[in-house]
Amino acid sequence: MSDSTPESSTGGPSVTASAAAPQHLSTGQLYLLALASAVITANAYYIHPIIALVAEDFGVSAAAIGAVPAFNQIALALGIFLLLPLGDWVSNRRLTSIFVAGQTIAIAGMALATDFRLFVAGSTVLGFFTIAPYLLPAYVSRRVPPEKLGHATAVLTTGIIGGILLARAGAGVLGEYMGWRSVYVAAAMLMLLMSILLPLIMEQGRRDRARSETYAGLILSILPIIRRHPDILLSGAIQAMSFGIFLAVWLGLGLHLTSPQMGYGTDVVGYLAAFSILNLATTPRLGAWADKVGAERARVWFTVGQLAGVACLPFFGHSLWLLMIPIVLMNLVGPSIDITGRMTFLRLSPDIRTRLMTIYIVIMFGGGGIFSWAGTIAYDWAGWTGNAMLALTLSILVLALSLIGLRLINRAV
Of 165, 168, 163, which is closest to residue 190 (Cα–Cα)? Predict the structure, then answer.
């Protein structure tokens, strides 16, 4: 990635100092970048609790409304594949500013859309430009002392988790009392604030690098890495289905709990999403445990826990209180499956980690988009039972692939 040294400016007494070494981020700047990560990440998750309100307003079915999160996630995967590698050429600050501006325009369009097709288009464009959360960690890694990198990474990760939590909880309450459009109006205002704030926090970095290869060559360089490290496809597939379970279940809950059968408002969906706050405390500890026992072995146990939670969904769907049991269990292990998946390839050569991460994220969000739409289609076809059975099928496949991954690593040892 770029931004390895700050860009010198013409004039001013600080040119020599800034050119000699990058200025470290202050604690305040780091937390502001974490806040920006939270705001940017939240945009994809507002739809979860208010999905029934949006479908009703546009007069579309549960299957059709699934296109909104599905196209958002698929477009995000495409954006990661096409745009993230540009970080090796172009200033992180410049790219972040462009991507945030694109998101701001897209989410404002969603708030104002009067036609469902325009709303879906806005969500799709929004997903395509949601690249900043994957650029900011690289930027921060070059703006903090090496001995503080772990802390800085944890702060950014906490921001992302907090953004997902506040998006689902806040959107549910706001949508219930002020209508679903108010959610996207508020989101557009927050993004406008971020578009002003981020350029002030981030240093320009050095000028864009000289390009020794074409853009097509940069993208195609990913293919030989896949051939040399096919295990990345296994980790990506596991996370794609695990992420798909998360999206499908929460979209299903948004439709199920607000249905005439259950009779709750979107605020209740938001309150239920607040259980995600557990991740802030448990995820670092589970990650530390994975360090001790090994990524593949820990992933198997986490997927067993996920399967145990998902298996309860078809039977507990009639009771809000019983639903809390599988939701808490799934919240505990879900992020840890992702962490162990990343651990399997982040131990490889530093020279290819960024491209391995690109492959992993593309598979993750592509699968998440497909399975999230499958979740709303299953709900439209067979209600909550259909949605839960889809999640159960995916969870069984996730466990099976995790066992294959453990067997392969044991054989290699």
Answer: 163
Please name which of 199, 35, 195, 202 lies closest in space to residue 105, comparing C-alpha atoms. 195
Whether 14 has a pLDDT exceeding 50, the answer reads: no
What is the pTM assigned to this prediction? 0.78
Overall number of domains in the chain: 2
Give dist(CA 240, CA 77) in Å, integer: 11
* 44 and 107 housed in the same domain: yes
| Secondary structure string (H, E, C) spanning 6-32 | CCCCCCCCCHHHHHHCCCCCCHHHHHH
What confidence tens digit (pLDDT) does each residue in 51-79 have? 999 999 999 998 899 999 999 999 999 99
Does 178 share its domain with 230?
no
More confident residue, 274 or 207: 274
CA atoms of 118 and 182, how far apart (whole Å): 17
In 133-206, beta strands by DSSP E? none
Largest CA distance in the chain: 69
Q: Are residues 54 and 163 located together in one domain of the fold?
A: yes
Q: Let me know if residue 8 belongs to a domain.
A: no
Return the C-alpha torsion angle 52, 57, 59, 60, nearest 10: -40
- Give the domain range for residue 89: 22-208
pLDDT over 60 (residue 29)? yes
Question: 187 and 148, same structural domain?
Answer: yes
Do residues 357 and 1 make contact, with C-beta atoms less than 8 angstroms apart? no
Q: Which CATH number covers residue 254? A: 1.20.1250.20
Q: Are residues 235 and 166 in the same domain?
A: no
The two tokens of residue 257 are: 């709990």
Q: What is the pLDDT of residue 272?
A: 82
* CA–CA gap between residue 160 and residue 173 (Å, rounded): 20
Task: Map tokens 């990635």 to a residue.
Answer: 1
237 & 164 share domain: no
The fraction of the chain above a pLDDT of 70, given in percent, is 88
Residues 323-376 have pLDDT tens digits of: 999 998 998 888 889 888 888 876 777 667 777 888 888 999 899 999 999 999
Which residue matches tokens 């592509």? Answer: 366
Structure tokens at 156: 């950014």
Count CB neighbours of 319 within 10 A: 11
Contacts 24+ apart (CB under 8 A), 26-29: 29/201
Cα–Cα separations (whole angstroms), residue 205 to 94, 142, 201, 304: 9, 10, 12, 45
